[in-house]
Amino acid sequence: MTGSQSKSRRVKTNLLAGAAAGAAIISLGLAVVSAQAQAPRLVTPPPAVAYGDGAFSFANLVERVAPAVVSVLVEREVERPQIPDELQQFFQFRFGAPPEEFEGEPDVAEAQGSGFFIDADGHIVTNNHVVEGAKNIRVSLSNGKELKATLVGADPLTDLAVLKVVEPPKGQAFVQFAEDVNLRVGDWVLAVGNPFGLGGSVTSGIVSAIGGESRQGTFLDFIQIDAPINRGNSGGPTFDLNGRVVGVNTAIYSPNGGSVGIGFAIPAKTAKETVASLIKNGSVTRGWLGVSIQPVDESIKSALKLKEAKGALVAEVIAGTPAAKAGVTDGDLIIKLNGRDLADPRDLTRSISALAPGEKARLTVLRDGAEKTLVVTLGARDADPQVASAAPPSQGEDVLSGEAGVKVAELNDAARRQFRIPEGVNGVVVTAVKPGSPGEEAGLQPGAVILQVDGAAVTSAASLKKMLADAKSGGKDAVLLRLQFGEAKQFRALTIGKKEG
After folding, report:
1. What digits encode the pLDDT tens for the residues 87-109?
2. 332-359 pLDDT, tens per residue?
3. What pTM, to 2 d.p., does this model score?
4. H or E element: which one contains 418?
5. Which pairing describes strands 478-485 and 123-126: parallel, antiparallel, or unpaired?
6. Long-range contacts of residues 94-101, Cβ cutoff 8 Å, at least 24 apart
7. 234 catalytic, yes or no?
């Protein structure tokens, strides 16, 4: 420890698993390999041992796979809390000098996570949030030996990172990804890791769900497991009973910070693809369209006269993006990518992200009732993209009579100031919504701007009223509104075929 470091306070912390994002689940596995002085040799781990009385034990399995799992120890600098000037002056007056806490280098926080070797070259998989911002990284082996590790690359969107030790010990066990696992709800799994700093801890449980949406709702369907995982388990492997890793522990659901029986693992397929890119390039690149999209619900399906509520509705095309250059327009319903039907916005986002920047993709869109094919040259997605799926708005509570249950006003200077609507936005602003009305059901709220009705621009309250009346007299049950909520644009269907009682 240097002289400057000696002045730093060390704060020990355990990492709470973070969120992640990735591709759809096609579960993979891992097989244990022994890194000998000569060529590595594949070792097939035995399954859990069954006994005559019907009981079984995981002991043989754990003995074979646990040596590949490591504890990840990180140090990162953290800012000292700001001390009010009057307190510093008090210490200066009372003791003749500021307290030691006010001097020296920034504090050093110590944290712990988990990881596992994946090859004989010394590469280790862990979570991005375990090593993010780390100043120093060490790994502790199952025999207690510590090795210095360096960061090869990290991917925040899937919460994965790859480390490397320069000289892994001879015979160090590691695991390799396989592609023959068909994970099902109810399958037994083991979680191995370093919870609360207890290296080599093993817990068991079952797969309780597959396909849980990630916090970003974009890249990753988690594997949900009830094998207890806790602080420090982040980055450790989830094994099936054949010793194959089917996931990478990454998050827990907990109201109190400890395990309550719901944990989440990154699917091994996602891990394999991401890790390969990190080792090769140090980063992960993904294709990008540059659109804000939303799902097709039943009301929008009715308004567009669709047979099925499928595809991704384009709420907004960002100027200058690949989608804009390819001719995608607001209101297009993207129904196919490279000839494959799309189920929903997540399907589109994940499929585009699986393609490389610069690659050409064929989008089939439904526009004005007719299909149209557009060819787009994909761009590169940022790690923190500005454009994402549009979130549904909150509901208004103001009471108003009327068939639609909505009151609107012209966009004059006063209305723009009141609802903070930019000059470039044109239409009419919603000022009140009646609870239980078609307007509330459509998701309208005070401050929302109605831009279009069925693709036609709304210029005034009178024009909006006429558009709704014409649509109803024409036999329509619903119209498609294009709205602006703050900075985001999206479509909502307004029912017009029924009256308030």
Report:
1. 666 555 555 555 555 554 567 77
2. 999 999 999 998 888 898 888 888 889 9
3. 0.62
4. helix 413-419
5. unpaired
6. 100/7, 101/9
7. yes
